[in-house]
Design a protein that fits this description.
The protein is 37% helix and 21% strand. It is built from four helices and seven strands. It has helices at residues 35-50, 70-85, 97-105, 118-123, and strands spanning 15-19, 22-26, 31-32, 57-61, 67-68, 89-93, 113-115. The strands form two sheets. Strands 1-2-4-6-7 form a five-stranded mixed β-sheet. A two-stranded parallel ribbon has the order 3-5. Strand 1 and strand 2 (22-26) form a beta hairpin. The protein is globular, with a radius of gyration of 13 Å. The model is unreliable at 2-8 (pLDDT under 50).
Amino acid sequence: MSAPTPPTDNPLGIETSQVNGVQVLRFRNAKILSEQSVRELGDRLMACIDAIPGSPRVAISFDGVNFLSSAGIGKLILLHRKIKERGGELKLCEIHPSTFDIFRVAHLHDYFDIRTDLNSALASFSP
């Protein structure tokens, strides 16, 4: 397991690390609401995926996020599609109950592979 990348010029507080061949992203900003933060979310997620060779295996922890806008969820849908196109896997975990309600109401809890915690997300990746 590599040490997390410290957030520098990183308003979303995104930390990245590698765990057993899985790129792990953690968000430390409590709210991803503004147009700027959503744009930053999309840019950083796409840059991360573009940097992974082959089929990306990505787990995203929302432990530090208590609200994610619908535009932010839209960025996650684009990310999911891009990862699937490359034959990869995306797992989401540690989603705040109010944010999970948005996924549930939009019927996205079936679209995404959402796990309770990071350990169960990591354990669920294909070998």
